[in-house]
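Fold it.
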Amino acid sequence: MAPRKKTPAPSADVTPPAKARVAPTTTPDARPAVAEPAAPRTRRKTAAAAADAGQPAAKILAPRLGKIAPAPEAPKAAAAEVAAPPAPPAKPTRTRTKVAVPAPAAKVTPAVAAPRLRTEKRPRREATEALPAAAAAASAPPRPPTPEPVAPPVSVAPPAVPSTDGGRRPLSVLMVASEVLPLAKTGGLADVAAALPSALAGLGHQVVVAMPRYRGVPASGEVVATFVMDIGPDHLHVQIFRERLANGAQVWLVDIPSLYDREGLYGVGSHDHPDNPRRFAALARAAFETAILTGFTPDVVHAHDWQGGLAPVYLRTRYATHPVLGGVPSVFTIHNIAYPGLCDAGWMPALDLDWDLYTPQALEYWGQVSLLKAGINFSEKVTTVSRRYAEEILTAEFAYGMEGVLAARRADLVGILNGIDADVWNPATDRFLPAHYAADALDGKRASKRAVLQAYGLPADDEALKRPLVGMVSRMVAQKGLDIISSVAGELPHLGARFVVLGTGEPAYEAMWRRLASQFPDRIGVRVGFDEGLSHLIEAGSDLFLMPSRFEPCGLNQMYSLRYGTLPLVRATGGLDDTVENYDPYTGRGTGFKFWDASGPALMGTLRWALRVYDHPDVWQRLQRAGMAGDFSWTRSAQAYVEVYDAALARTGRRRAATR
């Protein structure tokens, strides 16, 4: 390729490493053999397999439900060597397909036992890639990495509905979520379910979140409703407490002791609670019954992950003609598609779900019921937590078998990046830092670097401060790229940098870091556990922040790092790809460093490149200031969700107009 005209070649010290292109081979896993449940009608197993794999189902099964379109293949990457960063690939043409929703049929309520809900991850189709030879990588001419091909893009900003008064009217939003910070938390869902309602309320909208009152969750607020609710053969006594979030947003704590007063939110250890289908069906139903009893009329219902997956189904079936909830649209957010919320088909009548819904186009998933699939198929709009992750889950590599289901909803799939709490994560006010700093006054960052080195017992004199410090705060699991790090762990102590690590996870990875720290106590520091104050100090005191995730729906630490002037080094996947701009030595633009191949050599090549750039303080500080200038607030994310709500309302309005 001819060199760029009038552009001087960058210094070899700051030129990114070559990215070896290898042709992966993929061996799909065999589908599990699942016994067919007894149902009132006969059906062909092959049709279910075809629908979930993205192939057309036989018309004789459900002629009124339509077909599921096949998931399009990702474009092939061109095998071309380049001397400069490549232009982004052209966007392929998108196909738009809609899923029709089955009408409810007569209720069937035979007595059923309590089958077990399976929420564990389904096996992924793994791609085995040959590692490039070290000699070949060393002899290749320096050039920036070429991005991997991805599936055709999905919508990012749906059009807002014009209001009749010339401006956007406030909305009433009812959310259904299984955990809300600070009341209960097992993962990032709790952060979103607290921050997003507060941000929406700050924009003037009325937001209520329905969440179970688990064991140990205090109920200090007033009782807003008490009632008895029937689900299948069960009579449940329900009490609703009101709690407050920031900016006037509210939480309805759904108190059903027979379902929620037990150890663990979803199970104990690796064992799920066997009645999880009933527990989270009750959450959705209780939210709707409370809205009816209290006179809260939502404009839109927003359900989260498999635990909220039945809320859109009940809106379209049980409450379809209700004077308060009839015609209310729903939005469904996928936080992690690896958890499909599977249960046996015998749960259908016990959850007040008609057998007509047990089809590949509705709830059936390989001989079982998927609550995640229910939310996808029955909501007006489907969102996920970053633009890139919305593209990735259309492919077999990331979709855990749901690629065909999502292909049918491609036109309604929207990626919205999560935000961060800009007040808590602010280097100018952070209470955990020894000195505050900002983009135009970075001197205080040096004090945090010294403090974090001292906290880990590493050298902290003036000479030590000149060496680059790489930080990592993470769960120590393969998803976070710990297997990639493990494959090159022996090389890390010889890079001329120091490492500080905080987190817990799989014993093998904890032992790996402990072993490195004992062998190289002056270069590597490790804390197994979690410490909120230390995590802030690592973000502020590190020069680089390591996030080599195999997949990352959104990610938060890379946004914390950018805000603190710590350059992220990430694998280009999901939200990491959306938030970090790869350093371009030709233009000088960038906020961090990326690699694409999930391999040790790719990680090490990018890490060595970043450490060479660190030797150029003027370049490094320019990248720091560019990252600190980014806007990762929840206000920006909340505004994007309002546009999705408006689009869902527009669709409901068209449906109502057609029925009048």
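Residues 634-659 form the longest helix (26 residues).
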